[in-house]
Amino acid sequence: MSEWRPLADRMRPQRLEDFVGQQHLLAPGKLLYESMRQKRLHSMILWGPPGTGKTTLARMIAAGSGAEFIALSAVQAGIKDIREAVAAARSSAALGRPTVLFLDEVHRFNKTQQDAFLPHVEDGTLTFIGATTENPSFEIVSALLSRARVYVLRALQAQDLEALLRRAVAETHMEDKVAPEALALLAQAADGDARRVLNLYELACDLATGSGQSLTLSIAQEVASGGRRRFDKGGEQFYDQISALHKSVRGSDPDAALYWFARMIDGGCDPHYLARRIVRMATEDIGLADPRALTLTLEAWQAYERLGSPEGELALAEAVVFLAVAAKSNAVYSAWGEVQRDVEQYGTLEVPMQLRNAPTKLMKQLGHGAGYRYAHDEPGAFAAGEKYLPEGLPLRRYYRPVPRGLEIKIAEALERLRQLNETKTS
Known about the structure:
The structure is a single chain. The protein is an alpha/beta fold. Helices cover 53% and strands 6% of the residues. The protein contains 21 helices and 5 strands. The protein has a 5-stranded parallel sheet with strand order 2-3-4-1-5, sandwiched between helices. Helix 5 (79-94) links the parallel strand 2 (68-73) and strand 3. Helix 15 (254-266) runs antiparallel to helix 18 and helix 17 packs antiparallel against helix 18.
C-alpha cells in the first residue's frame, strides 16, 4: 500500500537534520531547536504559508520527546473530538507519557471551540500545537495566545526546494533521467511550498515515464504552467499586498506600485476591488495637487467595466503609474478628518443668520439671510471680512495646501484672500 502514498508524504522527514529551511527557528541556539534537542515540550502555534513544514515539525516535536501524538483538523473536528483527545491524554498521563494535541488550521475553530481545551493546556494534561496560515492576532483567542508561543515559519527559498528535489530524485531512482534546469523550474514554480514542489515533481515524473522520456525542461514547463502565486483573497496576504500597493503609490515608486498591482491580479484579486482602492488613492494621496488623478482613475475603472479582463487591467495599471508619479497631497484627506472630529465634538451649532435660507415672508421677518453679501457683487467676487463658520467654533483652517503641484497656486490664492479678510477686519 505504501507505494500509493503521495511522494510528499513518503518524503516527510523524520529527523531534524533532514528538515529543509526555517533556520531562523531551527539553528543551534534558537529556542525551538534547543527545546527539541532537550526534549522539552511547550505549547505553541506554528504560523506560516502552506508547505513550510508545520505538520512535519509538530510530528517531530512529539516523536522526539516520546509523546503521544493526536492530530485533528479544525475543518472536521469539534468539541466532542477535543473531549476524546483529552480523555486519551489523561490515560497516557496515567502511564507516565505526555500527549501532544496537534490542531491543523486552528484559525477555523471559533472562540467556544478554542476555549474548550484551554483548561487542559493550563493543567498540563496535554501540550497544544496549533498550525495556521492566518495571523494569530486576529484568529486566535487571547487566552490561548497567552499560553502558547508563536513561531513564524517562512516560505522556502528556491535553493531549499531544489535541495528537496534532489532528494526526491534519489527517492524515485531518476538520477540519470532528470534535467537540472527542470528541477530549477519546478522549484521556482512551487512558490516556496515544499508539498507543492514534490507534487509537481511527481506529476512530471509520471508524464515523463508514461511517454518513455526523461524529465526534460519542456515537461517541467507543461506541469508548472497555470500556477498562481500565494494569495488568500481576504486574509493576511491580501491586506499586506494592498497595503504595499498603496504605500508604493504614496512613495512615488511606479515600479513597485506596478509590481504589487500585478501580484494581486495574478493572485486572483477582483479587479473591481482594486479599481475602487485606486480611486481612493487618488483622493487620499494626490488630491488637489493634481485633480486629474480622480478623473483618470474613474475613467480607468469605467474602461475596465467596458473591456473586462485582461484588456481592462491595462487601464488600471496606467492609473496606478499615474498616481505614483503625480504630485502628492493629503491636505484634503487631513482636512476631512479634522472637520469630522469638530462636527462630533461641537454638536449642532447654529447656522449664522446671514447664511440661512429665507424662502418665506416669516423667515425673512425673523432675519434669515439678513446682511448676506452676494460674493459675485463684491470686488474680485470675494466678500472680504465675511464669516461662514458658526458661532461657538474656534477659528479653523482645515485645508492647508502643500507646496506641490496645483496646490502651490491654490495656496497663493488663499493667502491673497486671507490678507483681504485681515485688511477688512482690522
